[in-house]
Design brief:
622 residues; alpha+beta; L-fuculose-1-phosphate Aldolase; ten-stranded mixed beta sheet; seven-stranded mixed beta sheet; 20 helices; 34% helix; globular
């Protein structure tokens, strides 16, 4: 029996094997690995390790000709040099995740949640997640709390979750009268402290936690670094959230209020036959309880592995531009207005309207980098790619180019003017891939700012200009007030990845510029017409704002390289538990198709139509 057959046989038995630092790791259901089978695995250990390593290399050398490391570097600019290698395999994500379960409250009696909690723990362990005992995952922490004016001083002793833990899993707790009284007292002390001691200074999350944590019941109070460790809350499934008659706008209210109430990043609702998962993406996803394995692997683990996080302004080279002189900015405003009849862009809301406690508002403000509002979806317009010299060269000229520091010379090289070229596999012959050597153009995208009303954009305040050359650039409208909340979209990596991948693999899509539209819903599979395509429904459900979300969109467009790009009318890039992106060479065609799809009930917010897409691979309807 060869190594491939042995590995496949182990997989069929439910045995998971993976390599880590030249060590072979094994996990399996109890009693499956017999002494004879263990001896067989040991005898073939070297061959299995080589086989697994070969598979990892093949995954990193993708069919489009560029590795994950190179794609991550290109869409992240120079920032990508110091960022971890993007990971797109949920199994590999699992092996890099550590979680802990917070001890249950005394006399906790929700048997359904207790059963699910135990099953979840076992499934995480089986998938390869490191499940760490509470004592090992936390450390003793002692601090002195002082309120100068009152002369109040006390020593607080607690346990805090270490920064090495990616998530703490807790159950929702019903607040007692005593806990409510402590919260009121803590909030009053916090109010006093911010006005007498801090005096308007921005407090760090650890400092805020010290001031209020002694009175809190939620798991967030035990987290050492909330930017690193997420809180996952287990609770009873809210039937209103999964009811087919509940509108998406109602679900936004239900979901946001639930996350704020429990101060968690992820909520898992549990009933006898269903599991729902909710985060700030408002994923609107429901799984059968019998499908716990897929729920954990494809939905929960990716969300823990790459949490939602905004790009900080220090990751960009900042500048200004004049929106009045930008035809593309004007086009974006027009695009937003034209999309209003679809109803796909619910109005956003101010965080201050939803979070009543000042201390909690300050924590959230820190986490979202000063963003004051939340909205769902984005609109953007890709400018025509900018080339200097030949957009494409032949093999002889490619061979004469110089390497680029930090990138594989087999994938990217540069000429004497510093223009970079990529070795892409654009189109395939019957027996081998056809290599093309295309210039990596300068990419510019105009985009609605985070939190803006996408269908009523103000040209002078709501439209940003984002550039991607060898680094990321952000240009704000001229004269922008420094106090104005004008931050780039969480989905910025997705925008630049779509623009760059289109230029390299399906250049007809963007040669004259192109709109991108994203909303938190899906079209049905039968909505697509001839020369319209979709891809991505099988991807792990990573949130927005991550390299991985950009990578998946980049790969989705590169997978269409065999198609004559001149014939493509529209492409939808599906993001499980997040929504769908659309790009088309003609913005009026895109708007007309989206409006018609909404009128005919073939496009809706929420996850109603996702199942029809998930049952297929990328496809054309012609």
């Amino acid at each position: 029996m060869n190594t491939s057959e042995l590995v496949n046989r182990l997989s069929q038995k439910g045995i998971r094997i993976w390599a880590e630092n030249e060590k072979l790791n094994i996990r399996s259901p109890k009693g499956v690995v017999t002494p004879a089978l263990r001896s067989e695995i040991a005898a073939h250990k070297t061959a299995i390790l080589a086989f697994l390593k070969q598979g990892e290399c093949q995954e990193n050398s993708l069919k489009n000709g560029l590795s994950l490391a190179t794609i991550g570097h290109l869409i992240g600019g120079t920032q990508g040099m110091s960022t971890r290698l993007p990971i797109i395999d949920a199994r590999v994500m699992a092996q890099k995740v550590s979680v802990t379960f917070r001890p249950l409250p005394k006399r906790y009696k929700n048997t359904r949640i207790l059963r699910f909690r135990e099953a979840l723990k076992q499934q995480l362990w089986y998938q390869g997640v490191r499940v760490v005992a509470w004592r090992e995952a936390t450390r003793q922490f002692k601090y002195t709390l002082k309120i100068p004016i009152l002369g109040w001083k006390t020593t607080i002793q607690t346990r805090t979750v270490k920064t090495s833990i990616d998530a703490v899993i807790d159950v929702e707790r019903s607040p007692s009268l005593w806990s409510r009284a402590k919260n009121i007292t803590a909030e009053a002390l916090y109010w006093l402290y911010t006005r007498t001691v801090a005096r308007g200074q921005t407090l760090s999350i650890p400092r805020i936690a010290m001031l209020i944590g002694w009175a809190e019941e939620h798991a967030a109070k035990t987290v050492e670094d909330p930017t690193r460790t997420q809180v996952v809350m287990l609770t009873d499934l809210n039937p209103a959230f999964t009811h087919p008659q509940t509108s998406y706008r109602q679900k936004i209210d239900l979901g946001i209020n639930a996350l704020i109430r429990t101060f968690s990043e992820i909520m898992i609702g549990v009933s006898e036959d269903q599991i729902s998962i909710l985060n700030m993406n408002l994923s609107d996803s429901v799984f059968a309880t019998a499908d716990l394995n897929r729920f954990v692997a494809q939905s929960l683990i990716p969300k823990i592995f790459v949490p939602i996080a905004p790009l900080l302004l220090n990751q960009f080279e900042l500048g200004e531009y004049n929106p009045q002189q930008s035809g593309d900015a004007g086009r974006l405003v027009k695009l937003g207005k034209a999309l209003a009849p679809t109803g796909l862009f619910p109005p956003g809301f101010k965080l201050s309207d939803r979070i009543q406690r000042r201390s909690h508002r300050d924590i959230v403000d820190y986490l979202v980098n000063g963003r004051t509002g939340v909205s769902y979806g984005f609109v953007a317009y890709i400018k025509a790619p900018q080339y200097v010299g030949k957009p494409e060269i032949d093999r002889d000229e490619w061979d004469s180019l110089a390497p680029v520091q930090g990138l594989s010379p087999a994938e990217v090289r540069q000429n004497h003017r510093g223009r970079r070229y990529a070795n892409v596999r654009a189109g395939h012959s019957s027996d081998r891939p056809s290599h093309r050597f295309r210039q990596i153009p300068d990419i510019w995208v105009v985009s609605a700012r985070s939190g803006a009303n996408k269908t009523q954009l103000d040209l002078n305040q709501d439209v940003l200009q984002i550039g991607l050359t060898d680094q990321l650039m952000l240009q704000l409208p001229e004269g922008t007030d420094s106090a104005t909340d004008i931050k780039p979209s969480y989905d910025l990596y997705v925008m630049v990845a779509i623009a760059l991948s289109s230029a390299l693999y399906v250049p007809h899509l963007v040669k004259n510029g192109a709109p991108i539209v994203h909303f938190h819903g899906y079209p049905s599979a039968d909505w697509f017409q001839a020369n319209e395509y979709w891809t991505g429904a099988q991807n792990p459900s990573v949130p927005c704002g991550t390299y991985e979300s950009g990578i998946f969109n980049f790969l989705g467009l590169s997978s269409l390289t065999n198609l004559p790009s001149e014939n493509i009318q529209l492409v939808s890039l599906i993001e499980p538990d997040h929504g769908a992106n659309f790009i088309a060479p003609d913005w009026e065609y895109l708007v007309e198709r989206l409006i018609r799809g909404c009128e005919q009930g073939q496009i809706e917010l929420g996850g109603k139509h996702f199942r029809s897409l998930a049952h297929h691979c990328a496809l054309s309807t012609d």
